Amino acid sequence: MTDIQDVLVLGAGMVGVSTALHARMRGLHVVLVDRRGPGEETSYGNSGVIDGGNLYPVAMPRDVPTLFKHALNRQTASHYHPAALPSVASWMLDYWRWSAPERLEDTARVMRPFFADAVGSHRELMKIAGAERYFRQDGWLELYRLPQSLAAQDRRLGLSKEYGIRNVKLTRDETLDLEPHLKPAFAGSIWCQDADTVSSPGGVTKAYAEAFAKAGGRIVIGDAMTLKKVLGGYEVETSEGTIRARQVVVALGPWAGDLVAKFGYRVPLGVKRGYHRHYAPKGNAFLNRQICDEDVGYVLCPMEQGVRLTTGVEIALRDAPATPVQVDRAFRAAADLFDLGEPVEAEPWMGRRPATPDSRPIIGAAPRHEGMWFAFGHGHWGFTLGPATGKALASAMAGEPVHIDLSPYRIDRWK
Fold first, then answer.
1. Does 1-58+99-135+194-269+356-415 carry CATH code 3.50.50.60?
2. CA distances in angstroms from 329 to 75, 180, 285, 348, listed in the order given
3. Tens digit of pLDDT for each residue in 342-381?
4. Predicted confidence (pLDDT) per residue in 279-311, tens digit
5. What pLDDT, in 10s, does the model give residues 142-178?
6. Domain range list for the chain
7. Which is nearest to 349 in space by CA: 288, 282, 274?
8. How far apart are CA 75 and CA 29, in angstroms?
9. pTM over the 0.85 mark
10. Pairwise CA distance, residues 103 & 107, whole Å
C-alpha cells in the first residue's frame, strides 16, 4: 500500500460499476473491488429491461385466493423452500404489509425520480462506453392472457398519464404487428415505450467497467468482508495487497447485509432468487423485444445467447442449493406463446435479488460512519437503476448538488 485512494467501491454489479464510473468522471481516484469480474452475479442474469416507465414495485399478493394458489407451491411466478420460511417469515410479513395498494402508490411516487432518470442515465454511460450495439430503444411488452387481467391495468395506466409515461394498451392484433412470431393465445398487451432493452446485461456491465478502467479507475479482486475502519478512512484486503481509501461504497447486493452488520447496521434485506435459461428459437422465429407473460410470471428475452427465459421469485435461503423448477414450468407455459427449441446451456443459471420489504433501495450516507456510503437493495431493478443510483451517489460523495432527494432511502428508516 503506497497511497490513499479517494473511494473504494465494493461490488462490481451494475450498481457498483456505475457508481465507480460516475465517481471517476468527477475526478475521484476510485478502486472497484469484487471477488469476481464485473457483471458476473445478478447483473449477468436479469431480463435486460431498463424500464424508465415503471411505476409499481413487484408486490406480494394480498387476496386470499391468490395467496392460497401460491401457498400450494405450484406456480410459475413464485416458489418457496418450506425450510426457509421460519427465517424469512418476518421479512415476508413486512413485504405483505408494504404491498397494500396505498403503500404501493406511495412507493411509486417516491421511486419515480429514479425511474424517470433510468433510461437517460444508461444512455449516457452507453455512449461513454461505446456499448450501443447492445441496446434497443423500442420498449418492451407486458402480455396479458386474460381480458380481465388487461382491464385491471386501467388504474395504473391512469397514473402513467399523470406522470407522462408512455404505457399504451394494445389489442392482440396490434401486439402481433409488433411481434409477428408470437402465437395469438392472449387478450392484449401494454407496450411500455419508455424503456430500453439490451441483448446482454452482463456485456453492458462489463462495457461500463471497461470505460471506468480506461478513465483511470482500478479494478481488483478482493474480499469485501475484510473491510475495516482505520485512521483517515477504510481499508480492504485484495489480490494487490491492502488498499486504503477515504470513502467506501457498499454495493454488494444480496451480500451487503453481512458486511454492514459488522459496523452495527441491521437491515431487513431479503433475497428473491431467480433463474434463467437460454433456448434456440424454432425455425426462423424471433422476438424484437422482451415479452413478459404477466398472467403466468416469466419473461422471454432476445439475447446474444438465444432467447433467455427468466423466472419469477423463489423464496429460499440465499445460499441454499438451486431448485430451478420454475424454469420447467415457464418453458411449458411459453409454448402457448412462442416456439422455443432446445436449451443452449446444460443447466439453468441462478441469481439473487437483494430486496427490502418496502421495495425501496438503501442509498446514501452511513449515519454513524463518516465516509461510508450505501447502494444496495434494489430488488428487481438493480440493472435498471444502477446508473441513476451511481450518478446520485457520486454527486453526494463529491459534494455536488444531488438531483434526487436521497432521504427516503436512508438505512435507518425502519427504526
1. yes
2. 8, 24, 21, 13
3. 999 999 999 999 999 999 999 999 999 999 999 999 999 9
4. 999 999 999 999 999 999 999 999 999 999 999
5. 999 999 999 999 999 999 999 999 999 999 999 999 9
6. 1-58+99-135+194-269+356-415
7. 274
8. 48
9. yes
10. 6
